[in-house]
Amino acid sequence: MARDELADGLAEVLGKVAGIDRADIAPEKSFAEDLGIDSLTLAEVVVAAEDRFGVLLPDDDWARFTTVDDALRYLERSVTAPPWPPPRARPGPG
Question: CATH number of the domain at 3-80, out of 1.10.760.10, 3.40.640.10, 3.20.20.450, 1.10.1200.10?
Fold first, then answer.
């Protein structure tokens, strides 16, 4: 997925979940200071982003996001990474 598509999708999520106007969203914007997003709202944004992009954002990872660009860079890596291979079946006893 292209960065522009990710940015549009993240802006959509931020608008729906946090009520942030698209015009106020830019890569350099801080979630807390510039956009006024507290930790609870950020958790809701993360859940909505997981649904929107089909990825899983572990707590340890998204807790370090301070700017919109942090989230976009993470999504770029997550969305373009090859899927994990399915686990191999282990032979049963006997």
Answer: 1.10.1200.10
Q: How many angstroms separate the Cα of 78 from the Cα of each of 10, 21, 69? A: 14, 25, 14
Catalytic residue among 38, 59, 61, 69: 38
Instruction: State which amino acid sits at residue 41.
Output: T
Q: Which two tokens stand for residue 29?
A: 């914007």
> CA-CA distance, 40 to 5, in Å (whole number)?
25
The question of whether 38 is a catalytic residue gets the answer yes
pTM higher than 0.90, yes or no?
no
pLDDT in single tens digits along all 94 residues of the chain: 788 999 999 999 999 999 999 999 999 999 999 999 998 999 999 999 999 998 888 888 888 899 999 999 999 988 765 555 555 666 666 5
Residue type (1 letter), 11? A
